[in-house]
Amino acid sequence: MKLLPVLVLLAGASAPVCAQTSLIARYRLDETAGTTLVDEGPNGMAGTYVGGVTLGLPGVVGVCADFSEVGVGRADITAAPLLASITSDTSYAAWFNTRSVVGYRRVFASQDAGIGVGLFYNNLLFTTRGVQDYVQTANILPNTWYHAVWTFDSTFLARFYLNGQFIGSVQGNGPAQPATGVFHVASRSATTELWDGAVDDLQIYQGTLSDSDVALLFANAGLAFNTGATAYCVAKTNSLGCTPQIQWSGAPNAFVPGGFLVQAINVRNNKAGLLLYSASGAAALPFQGGTLCLAAPVRRSTPLGSGGAPLPTNDCSGVYSIDVNSFAQGLLGGSPLPALNVAGQQINAQFWGRDPGFPAPFNTTLSDAVEWIVGP
Fold first, then answer.
1. DSSP per residue over 7-39, as a string?
2. Is residue 266 in some structural domain?
3. What digits encode the pLDDT tens for the residues 48-89?
4. Over 80: is that where the pLDDT of 192 sits?
5. Position 20 confidence tier, pLDDT thresholds 50, 70, 90
6. Which DSSP string do the residues of 276-295 spell out, in sequence order?
7. In a domain, 269, yes or no
8. What CATH number did the domain enclosing 201 receive?
9. Distance between CA 316 and CA 373 in Å, rounded?
10. Which pLDDT score, from 0 to 100, does residue 227 have?
C-alpha cells in the first residue's frame, strides 16, 4: 500500500493505493569471496561469478563487484524460471559505474530472447531480445556512479530513470519473448556485450515502479521494496466527524536510515500526536473512546505535530507523519525500540493525538493501524 504519488497533497488524499510491484530478485553483489552470487529476493535464484571479477570493492550500498571486460567477467544465473517468464510489466534497478561508453554494455540480460538492460554507448538501453531495442539519451560518463531504473509496462512502454529522475520513454509494439537460456549479470552471453566496471544492488521487480518509488530508491541507497504492509483495525471518528486514515510509502528496512514514511491524514489541524508501536503483535482493545490496535507493551515515537490550516481554523487538514526508518536509526531522537532494526521482525503501529472536542478522558484521536515486517 502506498501514499498517493504527490505526497504534498495529503490533505485531499483519498484511500491508500495498493502497491503494484513485487520483488523478484535482488543481487546486492556484496560478496567478498567465493564464486556464488547470492539472490536476497524471495525466490533464491542464485548465480555464479565467472572470469575477471573483483569482489568486495567500495560501492554505493556497502561493497560491490567489478567486472573486467578484458577478463570476460560476468555472473551466470542458470536456474531462473520466474525470470524467464517475464515478458512485460517489469522493472530493473541498479547502481553502476562503467569504464567504457562504447558499444553495447549489459548490466543484466537474458542470453536468448527475454529482456536485457544496460547502456548503448552513453545512453540507457532496454531490450526485448529479437523484438526491439529501446534507447534513451542519458549522457553517461565513464568512472562515475549512477543509479538507473528501467521499467516496461503492460502497454509496452519503456520508461527510463537516472539518479531518481524520469528522463524519457519509448513506446514499443509488443512484449518480450519468454527467455529460454541463461541470464547474466554484466554481459549478454558468455562473451558478448560485456560490462566493464562496477555493478551494485541490482533489483528486479514484477510490476512497474512509480516515479515516487524510483525517487525513494535513489535517495535511500540500499532500500528495496521487499516487504509489504497491511492496514487493519478501526479508526476513531474525531470530534469534527472525520475519520483518520493511515497511509505509507517506501519500505521498512533494518539498515537504511530513511525511506519508510508512515502518515495519518484527516486528523485535526495543529494538534500534538505520537506514533504508537509494538513488537508484540496486534490487538483490538477499548481505549479512550476508540480502539487500541496494538498488543502490550506499547512504545511511542518522539512528539509529532499535525500542521494543517493555521488557527483559528479548526478542520481535518492535519497530517501526522514520521519516517520510521529514520526514527529507528535514532536520527529523530527519542529511544526507539531495537526491534525496529531487526530484519524479519513484525511491527504494528497507529497514530494517537489530541482532540479537545471530546471531554476528558476521551479527548484524543486514534487512527487505524498498520502492520509490517522489517526488511533486510
1. GGGGGG--SPBPP--EEEEEE-----SSSEE--
2. yes
3. 999 999 999 999 999 999 999 999 999 999 988 999 999 999
4. yes
5. low
6. EEESS-EEEEEETTEEEEEP
7. yes
8. 2.60.120.200
9. 30
10. 86
Q: How many domains does the chain have?
A: 2
Cell numbers standing for residue 199? 555493478
CA dihedral 207→210→212→217, nearest 10 degrees, is 40
State in Å, rounded, how far the first CA of the chain is from the last one: 19
Give the percent of the chain with pLDDT over 90: 93
Q: Pairing between strand 197-206 and 229-232? A: unpaired
The kind and range of the H/E element at 318 are strand 318-323
| Coil, helix or strand at residue 116 | strand
CA torsion sign for 106, 108, 111, 112 is negative
**Residue 94: how many CB atoms within 10 A of its CB?**
23
pLDDT value of position 16: 36
Express each pLDDT in 118-135 by its tens digit: 999 999 999 999 999 999
Looking at the whole model, is its pTM more than 0.85?
yes
| Secondary structure of 153-170 in HEC code, one letter for each residue | CCCCEEEEEECCEEEEEE
Helices (H), the chain: 81-84, 211-219, 324-328
